[in-house]
Amino acid sequence: MSHDGVGLRAVMRSVAFLTAGALAVPALAACSADEEVAKPLAAQDIAPATRARIADGGTLRWAVDALPQTLNTFQADADAGTSRIAGAVLPSLYRLDSNGTPQLNPDYLESAKIVETEPKQVVLYKLNQQAVWSDGREIGAADFAAQWRALSGKDSAYWTARNAGYDRIEKIERGKSNLEVRVTFSRPYADWKSLFSPLYPKDVMGTADAFNDGARRKLQATAGPFTLQTIDHKTGEVLLARNPRWWGRPAKLSEIALIAVPRDQRADALAADKVDLAEIDPEEAGRITLAARDKGTAPPQGPGSVLTPATALRSSVATYARQQTSLRDFVVRKSLEPAYTQLALNGSEGPLADERVRRAIARAINRDELVKAVLGPLGLPAVPVGSHLALSGQPDYADNSGALGGQDTKEAQALLADAGWVPGGPVNEQRQQQQQKKEKDKAAGPEGKKADSDADPDDGTFIVGEDDKNGEADRDRKDPKDHADKHGKNGKEHADDEAGKHLDGRQYAPRDNRQGGAPGAYAPKGTAAPAGAAAGALAKDGKALTLRFVLPSGPGSDSLRTVADEISRMLERIGIRTETSRVPDDSYFKDHIASGQYDLALYSWPASAFPATDARPIYAKPVPAADGSLAVEQNYTRVGTDQVDQLFDQAIATLDEDESRSLVRKADARIWAAAGSIPLYQRPQLMATRLNLANVGAFGFQTPLYEDMGFLKKGAQGGTTTKKDR
């Protein structure tokens, strides 16, 4: 999971209130499994070239957010850097194609298939006879067995972040030869292709010490087109070198250097010839596009040929002009990332514990407008995401947003009226309490809101929908329980933070047996929207309907803030006020999203080729734990239903791919109906790429082929030249 700008694994409905469990079957009929699969909204953009056109040698310098804290992808603090290194140096039995569909990797497998289903599911892997670890040992059943034992969940000495799928394996055996591996499952497992990718050597998985600590900084053996050469945390660089024992197509590059460069310094690093490839934000993309457009003309003076005050503060006009000249050696390759941004609604307490309020918010939002605001200026397809569990182009994708319904202000207002929220109301006492709270926060200094009158107006809190800014609603927030003592000494503290388990001691808000919503007066079902409802804020039981909207404040979060502002204006039209809080990036997830300290938030989830496995913990129904906390797994909206859990369980246990796909789509329709999260847009993927680089850029769904990346031979660029051939 990630959020934009912060550095981490898809029927029309009436206004009448229905719980997710009461939905009629016809309303949940997702697209049939034999329907034509939609294409990806945007193709990958990697400057494809044949290997004959690519020079042998050279070092690709690739900007990353930070060096990984671990090389073990199965630990909780593994990140994108961990996965990138694993993709270049470790076996993956399956890799994703341009549609995000897993395809057998012939570098490691000759075949893999289910050979028995009764009495147990058995998968037989036939390994590539040339596949060896960098120490010369053959890849074999011992490596499979060690990884299974480490990730099965049966040995608590292994500090694993996940064990899905491995917990269903009963045994692993050598087949007729060393090149065959038989995996027997205790229970049917539809997503068996997700296992053993990456595959670690038995030296890493064989003992808890090696798994927990040894693989954080070093890999004893690798088996990819590259090997791990060095990790230097002082210089912020990881060096990967061509693997001399690699049996596949030889890597074109001699080395790949992963260099830590903060997001707000990427343009400077590109212009200073420190990196060749970097993911960038729209502002930097605009600079590169402008530089290319101005090639051969007078040096530009800033974005759009106008030097902005922000640019003037960072550098002189002359420096900026020199950078623009250097940026002419780059091009912006763009596609859509295999991840989507959603609006999350925390359903654990308060107004959002009532499904009608959540559904009203969803019906008030015009997703088309939000998508156009983010993707339109970038020239990318502006199409809202229609599924929580897959993206357009993937086999599991179907647009199930109809289970909730499209934008309709009148129905949104009627839902709120049905939930007892009416215009106006006695909120004077609440206003006074909030004013007292604000004054107390100011007096608290660094622990409260900033008292400095010169503070950035974008920091802190403001309310949309209220003219009197001192009349903020009292949120009556409680600090989450401190669980540091529970997990800090056993080495799992970070794992629990990231997994979102037992985080804050919250319980479900009390719900009555009429509607399952927040306590208070309820209008009869089907109540018409009150006249003039859009003109004033709504209130109930003396409290205004004000929701806390939490956002990150760091570099790269501009698009999130733009979307949040638009959502706040849309909600204001139906009488819902938003109290926006911008918090530091490093605390956004842990201290707010995972701990449930928000009402509304924007963050992203990656798409998965195996949604029945990977998405289940994101939408699993939270359950009370023995210590009184709420076990939410990764369901940070805290909205879930038994029916969704059952559909996931059924999808993961059927070996019929079409049936499994149908069950996943039905689960998605119910997730839409529960309105705990609203998918908005597929995230843009903007890569600044040196002009003479080939087979690298915005990959979209497809797994990068590291061995095919490289610099074009001189003369292979159709006359294009750059200041440096590598």
UniProtKB/TrEMBL annotation:
Transmembrane helix recorded as keyword: no
Which top-level group of life is the source organism from? Bacteria
One Pfam family from the UniProt entry? SBP_bac_5
Q: Does the keyword Cell membrane apply?
A: no
Give the signal sequence positions.
1-29
Q: Boundaries of each Solute-binding protein family domain copy?
A: 106-425
Looking at the record, which segments are called Disordered? Answer: 420-528
Instruction: Give residue spans, biased composition: Basic and acidic residues.
Output: 436-453, 466-514
Q: Which keywords accompany this UniProt record? A: Signal
Name of this protein: ABC transporter substrate-binding protein
